[in-house]
UniProtKB/TrEMBL annotation:
InterPro entries: FTB, PGGT1B-like, Prenyltrans, Terpenoid_cyclase/PrenylTrfase. One of its GO terms (biological process) is prenylation. The keyword Transferase applies. PANTHER family: GERANYLGERANYL TRANSFERASE TYPE BETA SUBUNIT (PTHR11774), PROTEIN FARNESYLTRANSFERASE SUBUNIT BETA (PTHR11774:SF6). This is Protein farnesyltransferase subunit beta. Residues 100-473 form the Prenyltransferase alpha-alpha toroid domain. Pfam families: Prenyltrans. It catalyses: L-cysteinyl-[protein] + (2E,6E)-farnesyl diphosphate = S-(2E,6E)-farnesyl-L-cysteinyl-[protein] + diphosphate. Catalyzes the transfer of a farnesyl moiety from farnesyl diphosphate to a cysteine at the fourth position from the C-terminus of several proteins. The beta subunit is responsible for peptide-binding. Belongs to the protein prenyltransferase subunit beta family. One of its GO terms (molecular function) is zinc ion binding. Its cofactor is Zn(2+). Its EC number is 2.5.1.58.
Length: 492
């Protein structure tokens, strides 16, 4: 038997949807539930704002069934009734999209900042994340979170260690993830009382101890080193105005890294995989959250149009990110061959403003190339597909409120925060108005957010939410207020 014959016998068959229907008709088989849902979705298929791709079963189906493909089809069948408007009868606009129930979600988030039940004791190390997720989401929904300032300050003060950084709870080791969440929460409530909580000298000493000889950062002293560390450390250093010089007694200094950002871009660049995405560390699987962390870190090291192309293979990265949006769901997956998840509305969706800025550069009125001008127009992903997925599938329609990753799941603070962040990115277009001087680290570029108006809008204007900085994931004015405060402090 020839190699070609063997390949033909074993190679999976790929059929188009019309071929499958023809085969089913020839066998006189009854229509499946999925086909019936496909027919119902045609109610909204005529709307130009929502392409047919997001209203019906996939046009191409791989006939080789695997556990992954079965789970994918189950997810599609679960989402389609929501996306077709079937689950929101009488509550949809002309595009079949329900409204954003802001007040119910606000009530849910305030509850997350109250007294939690005893079974949440196991989540004590994640307390700073609850603060950040809830406060960030409330801010996006237009709530004034400064009312939580005093409570937050008194809660996080005891979890700051004298050696620098914040633990998850009292007596716990400082960790970059919980320090990042705590710092962002403090910036969200704002005010001198919140800013003064952070011991910046101790923070600097702790960050120097986390800086590694290869340029990256550990998450905790003696712990894992990954792209999360690169991003969290960069955000903390930038927001708090931490001096960049490394401590002479640190391992990084001995390895030739005289400042905290030295070698970091090169280390992040090594995390890009053969697929084009970004892994936690060099040599493992690409993941959407790590892609955002990488792009966010690089956008702090230098302006994104200089730093991202310098350290990333842009065509491969764009191809991988584009492959993360699925149809008909409209949401993003975090990895190849994985299902959509609402949180990647932010982790992947949040990459696109940074990619757009990397392609188009600053729009400061200076002469720009034809490629830069072309990059200013259109969208690199289906914004309406994502918005529809979020408003249809991610809203918890029970009295509980909040947002979730997909219809069958429960809402939580994590998904509520990052789904809303993704919704904000889809509703608005961020433009890099002016870039900092070449070689100036710290993230102080000038960004501008405007409503995205190039496509027909599928959501009601009342459902538009606030904006969040594409790098720091808190409102831009909160970032600028922190910069102004810490810039006024000489030294530590």
């Amino acid at each position: 038997m020839s190699l070609r014959s063997r390949r033909n016998k074993t190679q999976p068959r790929v059929l188009f949807r019309h071929q499958i229907k023809a085969m089913a008709a020839a066998a006189d088989s009854p229509p499946t539930r999925s086909q019936a849902l496909s027919g119902m979705s045609q109610v909204y298929a005529s709307e130009p704002a929502i392409p047919d791709l997001f209203t019906s079963q996939p046009l191409i189906v791989d006939m080789l069934e695997t556990e992954s493909s079965q789970l994918q089809q189950k997810t599609i069948d679960e989402c389609l009734p929501f996306l077709s408007g079937e689950q929101h009868a009488g509550k949809c606009n002309q595009h079949g999209v329900p409204r954003l129930d802001k007040q119910r979600h606000v009530k849910f988030l305030h509850k997350q900042l109250g007294r939690l039940p005893p079974q949440m004791a196991a989540a004590d190390p994640s307390r700073p994340w609850f603060f950040y997720w809830s406060l960030a989401a409330l801010t996006l929904l237009g709530e004034d979170v400064s009312i939580y300032r005093e409570r937050l300050v008194e809660t996080v003060r005891p979890i700051q260690n004298v050696s620098g950084g914040f633990g998850g709870g009292f007596g716990q080791d400082s960790h970059l993830a919980t320090t990042y969440a705590t710092v962002l929460a403090l910036m969200l409530v704002g005010g001198e009382e919140a800013y003064k909580v952070v011991d910046r000298r101790a923070m600097w000493e702790w960050l120097c101890s986390l800086k590694q000889a290869d340029g990256g950062f550990q998450m905790v002293v003696g712990g894992e080193e990954d792209v999360r560390g690169a991003y969290c450390a960069s955000v903390i250093i930038s927001l708090l105005g931490i001096p960049l010089e490394t401590s002479p007694d640190s391992a990084a200094y001995a390895a030739g890294h005289k400042d905290l950002f030295s070698g970091l871009g090169e280390w992040v660049g090594r995390c890009q995989t053969y697929e084009g995405g970004v892994a936690a560390i060099p040599g493992i699987e690409a993941h959407g959250a790590y892609a955002f962390c990488a792009l966010g870190c690089l956008s702090i090291l230098d302006a994104p149009h200089r730093s991202i192309p310098k350290y990333m293979n842009m065509p491969q990265l764009i191809a991988w990110l584009s492959s993360r949006q699925y149809a008909p769901e409209g949401g993003f997956s975090g990895r190849t061959n994985k299902l959509v998840d609402g949180c990647y509305s932010h982790w992947v969706g949040g990459c696109w403003p940074l990619i757009q800025a990397a392609l188009s550069g600053p729009n400061s009125g200076k002469a720009r190339s034809a490629d830069q001008q072309a990059a200013d127009t259109g969208s690199l992903f289906s914004r309406n597909g994502l918005i529809r997925y979020i408003l249809c599938c991610c809203q918890d329609q029970t009295l509980r409120g909040g947002l979730r990753d997909k219809p069958s799941k429960y809402s939580d603070a994590y998904h509520t925060c990052y789904v809303l962040s993704g919704l904000s990115s889809a509703q608005h277009k961020w433009t890099l108005r002016a870039a900092r001087p070449t070689g100036s680290a710290g993230g102080a570029d000038e960004w501008e957010a405007m409503p995205y108006v190039e496509d027909e809008q599928v959501f009601n204007e009342d459902d538009r939410i606030g904006t969040t900085h594409p790098v720091y994931v808190i409102p831009q004015h909160k970032v600028e207020a922190a910069w102004e405060y810490y810039a006024s402090k000489m030294g530590f």
